[in-house]
Amino acid sequence: MDWKKFSKESVKQIKENPTFFVISLFGLFALFLFLVNLFAVKNLNSTNFIAVFINNFIYLAKTLGLSQTTIILFCVAGSAALAYYKRFKLSITILLLCVVFIGVNVRLANLPLLKDSTNGEYLPLALDPLYFMRVAQTRLATNNNLPQYDPLRVFPGGNIAWHPEIMPELNVFIFKVASNFISGIDIRFIAVISPVIYFFFAILLFYILIFKLTKNKGIALLATLLLSVIPAYLYRTMTGFADHESIGMLAFYLTFIAFVYALSNINNKKVGKVVFASFFVGLTTTLTIAMWTGISSILFVLYPFTFFFVWLFNTKKESKVFVRNGLTFYIGWIIFTVITGLFFKYSPMGMLNFFLGSQSIISIAVLGFMVVDAIFIYTKPKFVKKNKRLFYSLGVTIILGVIVLPIIGIDLVGILRSSIVKFLTPWNTSRLNITVAENKQPYLQDWIGTTGKVIFWMFISGAVLFGIRLARKIKNLKKSTIFFILYILMIFGIVFSRISPTSTLNGESFASSLVYFIPLIAFWVYFFKIYMNEDFKFTGIQMFIFSWLFLTIVTGRAAIRMFFAITPFVSFMAAYFIIGIFEETRRAKDEILKMILIVIFTLIVILTFNATAQAYLATSNQAKNTGPSANFQWQNAMSWVRTNTAEDSVFVHWWDYGYWVQTLGERATIADGGHFQGAYNGDHKIGRYVLTNQDPNAALSFFKSMQTDYLLIDQTDLGKYSAYSLIGSDAEWDRRSAIPAAVYDPKQTRETNKGIVFSYVLNSMVDEDLVYQEGNSSKIFIPGPSYDVRGNAFANAGIYKIEVGVSNNSVTQPMAAYYFQGQNYNLPVRYVYINEQLFDFKKGVDSVVMVLPYFKTQGQSGNLDPFGAIIYLSPKVQKSLFAQLYLLDDAFGKYPTIKLAHEEPDQMISYLKSQGAQLNEFVFYGGLRGPIKIWDLQDIPENIQVVEEFYEYQHEQYGILDDKQFILE
C-alpha cells in the first residue's frame, strides 16, 4: 500500500469534510470508552490507568449532564458519518463489530441469573431450551449416537423419536472444541450461551444481506443496530434461550444471501453459475429446515412468489436465455433441497412434502406455470397472442392443477379455502393453538407495542418510500400514480384491518374483510393490467424486497410469536427510510423541496436517536433482569423429584411442565411442550379426564391406563383453567369455564351488628344453566353461555359480586349477586372453604367460595388480611379434579387413594412465614400464590379398569370415552 499517497488523499478529504471527521472521531472515541466500560471496568483495579481514565470520563460526562444514552447517540452519529466517509472503509467494519458487540453484551447480561439454586448448574431460560439441552447431554453421553426413542417422553402403545433439529449436535461440537482450550467447561454452559454465539454470526450475516440488497453500508449498519437493540428480537437470542430461533435465523439470513446471489446471476450466460446458485439455495434451504423447521415455511412461499415476478419481467420479451436459466435454477433448487436433505437424514418424500403443504404448494404451482409458459415461448403457437401469453399460461396451469392435484391426493378446493382463511387468520386455529399465549393472533396495537411507535412508523414509512421507488419505474405518470396509491391502500388495508378488539376493524368483522381484500384485489388487478400494457421492469432484488414486505405485513397479523421472525425486515425498512430520506434530500433539485426534506430528515434523525436509545435501555433492563422460567420453587420441587422418586417414574400434568420434569426432575412424562401427546390426543384427554374431570373413577382409570406414578399440579394452573377446560371440552364445550378471583372492595364492605360483611367484586360469566329453587318459592333460571365453533363464549348472564359475612372469626353463608336481562338475583352459596376447612350450609347454589388471606403492600411494609380475597368455584368447576384436589385438599373425600407426596411452597409464602405470618398453603398477592403439589398415584384400586382407548388417537373426537366402563361393579 502506498502510505504516502493514502496520507495525502486522507488529509485532502479531512479538509473537505472537517465536520464529518470531527464527529466521526468523537463518535468512535465515545464508543470505545462505552465498550471498554461495559467489558472491562468490572474487572479492572481502581488504580489501573485505564480504569481511572474511564471513570474520570464517566464522571465528566455526568457532570456535563451526559448520560450513557447520549454517548450511544454520538456513537450512532459517528457511524452515520463514517458510512459516507469513503476513505475510512475499515471504520465501517470497526463500527459494525462495535454494534454487534453491543448486542452481544446486552444478551449476556443475565448469565449470572441462570443457575439452579439446588445444584449450582447452569439453567436455560424457558421450556423448550431445556429439552434441547437434554438432547445435547444425551448426545454427549452416547458419543453422538442418540437412542432410537426418547425414554422420557412416553405413553403406552407408542414410542417417541427425538426431535431432528441439529442445534444440540452443534452445541456438542462447540463443547468438544471449547473443552480443548477451557478446562472444566460444561455442556450446560455451552447450551446456555449458544444463542449468543449464533446471534453473533447471524447478525453479521444480516448486515451482509442488507448490504447485498441495497448496496448501501449506511442502511445495512443502521438496520443491524436497530435489530440488535429492538426488544422484540431480544428474548429468543439472549443467554439461556437455547432454542432453535437464534440458530434458525443464522440459516435464514444465509439462505436469503444465497437467493440474492442467485437473482444476481440468473441472466448469466454461463449456466454453471446458475446451477451453483441453485445448489447454494437448495443447501441453505435444507440448513434452515434442519436448524428451525418453523421459519423454513416462509421460504417455500417467499421464493416462489419472488421468482414468479422475476420470470414475468424477464420473459416479457421472450428471452430464451432466461427461460433456460430460470427453469434450471428453479428445478435445481427443488432437486438440491431434496438431495441435501439426505445428509441430514431427511427422506426424499419428507423433503418433497415441504413443497406440497397447503401454503407451500405455491412452489409447485409456480414451477408448473414456468414450464407451461416456457413451452409457449419456444413453440410460439399461433393461437397465443404475444401480449396475452401470460393469461394462456396461467389458464393452462390452473386446468392442469385441477386435473393433476386430485390424482396425487391433494384437495385443490381445500387449498383455496385454506389460503383465504390463512390470509385472515394465518396461524393454526386448533383448540391447542388458540389457548397458547404466543400463538394468539395479535392486533395492530400489539405490533406497535412490541416494536415501539417510532420504529414501527419508520417501518411503515420505509414501505411507502419503497413503493414510491417502485412506482418511478413506470414511465406513464398517471399509471405510476395509480399504482402507488393502490400499493399504499393494499399495505394499509392489510396492516390496519385488525387494529384492536374494540375497533370496528377488529380482524373479524365484515368491514375488516372489506378493508383487507378490496385494496389487495384492486392492486393485483391493476398490476397485471399495466404489466401487459406498459414497458417497465422491476429488478429481481426489488421483487424479493417486495415479496418479503408483503409476507411481513401478512405475518404481522398471524401470531405474537411471529413478531420475532418479522423484526429483521422491520429493522431493514426503518433503516431504509431513514437513509432513503437523506438520499432523497441530496438528490432534490427544487430548493423548497430540499428545505422541507432537510427539516423532515432532521426530525427523523432526532426521533430515531431517541427511539434507538430507548430501545437499547429497554432491552438492557429486560436482559439483566430475565431469569429462568423454572423459578426457585420449581428448582426445589424438581430436586425433591430427583431424590425421592424412582428413576422409572412417570408423571402426568398439564403439558407446560413436561420439559421441566424431564430435564430438571429427570423423570418421564406423558405430555410436554413438543406435544408428542398429540399421538393419543393427550392434551384433550389430560384436560378432560384429569384437570377438569368430574368422575373420580374416570381419572383413576386414566392414570392406570397411562401407567403414571405421580400427578403434578402447579399454582399457575388456576389461571390456565380457561385454556385446558376449552381443550378438554366435548363438541358442545361442556367443560368451558374459568376461575375468577377477587380482593375485597373497601367501599362496599360494611359493618353490621353481627360483624363485618366483606364485598368482593367479580366480573365472570355464568358458565352453565343455573336453576335454583328454595322451598316453595318460584324457580329462578339463569342461562349459561352460547359458543361459536372455536369455543368462544357469548355470555347470557354473569356474576358480579359475592358477599361473605365474618362474625367472631367465623364466616356466615355467602351471597352471590347474578345478573340476567337487566335483573339482579341474590342467591346463597352453599359452601365456604377457609383455613383448610369446608363449611357446608346445606342449601344454596352448589358452588364454593374459597376465602384467602390477601397480602397488600403499603410503601416499604405490607399488611396481611385473612379475609382479603376469594376464589369463586362455580358448580361446574368445584366438581373438577383441579378444584377438589389442588384447591380443596379433597375436602369432599372423592379421591381417598390419591395421597399427597410432596408440597413445594411458594417463595413469597415461605418468606411471609419466616416473618411470623400465620399462613396455610395459599395467599393472594398479585394473583394466587400457592404450592406445587405432587400426588402419589401408585395405590389405585384393583377394580379400576384399564381403558386402552386412552392411549389411542381419536381424530377431532372429544369426550367420546365418557361412557366407558371405568370400574368393575
Question: What report would you give on this structure?
Answer:
- The protein has 969 residues and is of the alpha+beta class.
- It has 31 helices and 23 strands.
- The strands form six sheets. Strands 6, 7, 8, 13, 14, 15, 16, 17, 18 and 19 form a ten-stranded mixed β-sheet that branches. It has a five-stranded mixed β-sheet with strand order 4-3-5-23-20. It has a two-stranded antiparallel ribbon with strand order 1-2.
- β21 and β22 form a beta hairpin.
- The longest helix has 34 residues, at 591-624.
- The protein is globular.
- The N and C termini lie far apart (96 Å).
- The relative contact order is 0.07.
Contiguous runs where pLDDT drops below 50 for at least 5 residues: 36-54, 59-66, 82-88
Q: Gyration radius, to the nearest Å?
A: 32 Å
Cα(first) to Cα(last) distance is 96 Å
Q: What is the SS-derived class?
A: alpha+beta
State the shape.
globular
Give the proportion of residues in helices. 40-55%
- What is the makeup of the main sheet? 10 strands, mixed
Number of strands: 23
Oligomer: single chain
Determine the number of helices (DSSP H or I, runs of at least 4 residues): 31
Content of β-strand: 5-15%
For the residues shown, what is the average pLDDT? 85
Feature tags:
single chain, 969 residues, alpha+beta, ten-stranded mixed beta sheet, 23 strands, globular
Quick description:
The chain has 969 residues and is of the alpha+beta class. It contains 31 helices and 23 strands. It starts with a helix and ends in a 33-residue tail after the last strand.
